[in-house]
Amino acid sequence: MVDLEKHMKKGLVERPTGAILAFADYTSKMPNMIKFTVGEPDFNTPEHIKKAAEKSIADNHSHYAPSNGTLGLRKAASNFLAKKYNQHYDPETEIVATNGVTESIYDMLTAVLNPGDVMVIPTPIFPVYIGDAKSIGAKVVEIDTSKDGFKLKPEKLQRVIDKYGDRVRVLVMTYPTNPTGVMHSQDELNAIADVIRDKPIFALCDEIYSELNYDQPHASMEHSLHDQVVLMNGVSKAWAMTGYRIGIMCAPKKITEQLAKVHQSITTTEPTPMQDAAEEAFKNGMNDAIPMKKEFQKRRDLLYDGLTKLGFKCVKPQGAFYIFAKIPDGLEQDDTKFNYDLAEKAHVAVTAGSCFAQGGQGYVRLSYAISMDQIKEGLKRIKKYIEENKNK
């Protein structure tokens, strides 16, 4: 039998998301586990959206949709963005439906980056962007924000651009962010936009958590720098539709034409019933996220207060459903070792901060997309673990 493995391409980039998935898989096999690891809402998809998917199947919408997405979905998404966030994109020429925002990220980076180009990314951050850029052969420059309240400072961005010059092609901006839940104000985003304005630099603006802002209106770099922004959003988080896999990618027409070429070669198009369901979400579910957001806010407050009392230092999240917490002194400071020890001894699963690149070392991420009862039980177990392991 031919040994095909040795003929595989050498030098494949190891995906930094692998450690997150490996730990989630490890803890999923352990009984009686409180999982603060899951990055998806624990709510059900609203009934009117499920019925739209069922109707689509019953109406035999089982054939190829246009590659950029059904016009109905693109019109609904365009209207949603305009009404909710004052973001304006032509549904016929400036929006592409993708296989979740994950595909949007890959499409955009593939279309823009060449080997040797530079992508700048504030960290800690969910690492999918880093793996994609490296697989293309681009250089990733991380800006550690952990000493700046997990916000990108314009002067730090300017120093990177001064160093790398015209090699810089992409700045990643994702707020509210995973793993910290931090959100910039519009004034802060305007200042960052001024650094790259009129330079050949694209801003990748991943706004998948836009509907889950708790303490301020959603701010967007698109308002500061429309012509240089590739905006990404979707239905996964706000409507609890992670399994439907529908994202949207928006940009000025000439940019979208190039992004669409990559999309066509990656997935051709998305499943038509899922697009019909997403159309229903955008069209008739504009306020569907409000009850979920209120519940997440209660959970955030419970978890934040509980962790703070136990000695964790946290920035209070302004959005999304994650808390990024510094491991208390007197406990194992290697976040990966802490992670596994906590899982094995306390049956509590959290995600190691080092999975989220520079600035994450010594932290853990906890998702509060679990029930209040689970959060309470998890805090009780963490308290007991600290009492038994501190200063040992």
From TrEMBL:
The keyword Transferase applies. Its EC number is 2.6.1.-. SUPFAM superfamilies: PLP-dependent transferases. It comes from the Bacteria. GO terms for molecular function: pyridoxal phosphate binding; transaminase activity. Keywords: Aminotransferase, Pyridoxal phosphate, Transferase. Residues 32-382 form the Aminotransferase class I/classII large domain. Its cofactor is pyridoxal 5'-phosphate. One of its GO terms (biological process) is amino acid metabolic process. InterPro entries: Aminotransferase_I/II_large, AspAT/PAT-like, NHTrfase_class1_PyrdxlP-BS, PyrdxlP-dep_Trfase, PyrdxlP-dep_Trfase_major, PyrdxlP-dep_Trfase_small. The keyword Protein transport does not apply. Gene3D superfamilies: Aspartate Aminotransferase, domain 1 (3.90.1150.10), Type I PLP-dependent aspartate aminotransferase-like (Major domain) (3.40.640.10). It holds the Pfam family Aminotran_1_2. Belongs to the class-I pyridoxal-phosphate-dependent aminotransferase family. This is Aminotransferase. The lineage of its organism: Bacteria, Bacillati, Bacillota, Bacilli, Lactobacillales.
